Amino acid sequence: MAYKALKAARGARGGRETARMMEKMGVKMNEVPDVTQVIIRTATKDIVIDSPAVTMVTVQGQAMYQVAGGEISESKPQAPGPVAPPDADVQLVAQQTGKSFEESAKALTDAGGDLARAILFLKSQPSQSS
Predict the structure, then answer these.
(1) Distance between CA 75 and CA 1 in Å, rounded?
(2) pTM for the complete prediction?
(3) What is the Cα–Cα distance from 23 to 20, expressed in whole angstroms?
(4) What is the DSSP letter of 20?
(5) Cβ neighbours of residue 93 under 8 Å, at least 6 residues apart?
(6) How far is CA 111 from the centre of its chain?
(7) How many degrees, rounded to 5, is the angle at CA 101 between CA 97 and CA 106?
(8) What is the pLDDT of residues 83-93, one digit of tens each?
(9) Residue 50, number of CB atoms within 10 A of its CB
(10) Domains in the chain, start-ordered, CATH in brackets?
(11) 120, 96 in Cβ contact below 8 A?
């Protein structure tokens, strides 16, 4: 019985000493509350971890996250669809090129949102006169 009490006391003291030593070295550990899901996205797949325990460990200003437990599943990443350019950008391209709103929007989408490229493309197109 005395052995168990001595062992427990040493363990508690060791924990305090470890905590002090970590604090002196600038190591801080904080649990991230209310995490419901962690997604690790790679070029070939998504790794989804539901209901994990997440701890943030900060060492000399550098943050690291430790993810433990949870249900793990993998899936193929979904390719994002084309994003419509902002109306202000479309309006600017239309003003600069004299083209319609629709033509300007298509040129911006084709140019990946690059205003200059869309304007240059449309200016290089022959104008259609009726």
Answers:
(1) 53
(2) 0.46
(3) 5
(4) H
(5) 99, 104, 107, 108, 115, 118, 119, 122
(6) 24
(7) 85
(8) 788 999 999 99
(9) 14
(10) 29-78 (2.20.70.30), 87-124 (1.10.8)
(11) no
What DSSP assignment string belongs to 80-106? Answer: PPPPPPPHHHHHHHHHHH---HHHHHH
Count the helix, strand and coil residues of the chain and give each as a percent rounded to the nearest 5.
Answer: 40, 25, 30
User: Beta partners for 66?
Assistant: 55
CA atoms of 33 and 26, how far apart (whole Å): 22
Ramachandran class of 98: left when φ > 0, alpha when ψ lies in -120 to 50, beta otherwise: left
Burial of 97 (0-12, 13-18, 19+ CB in 10 A): buried
Cβ atoms 27, 57 nearer than 8 A: yes
67 φ, ψ to 5°? -110, 125
Q: What is the pLDDT of residue 25?
A: 82
DSSP state, residue 78: P
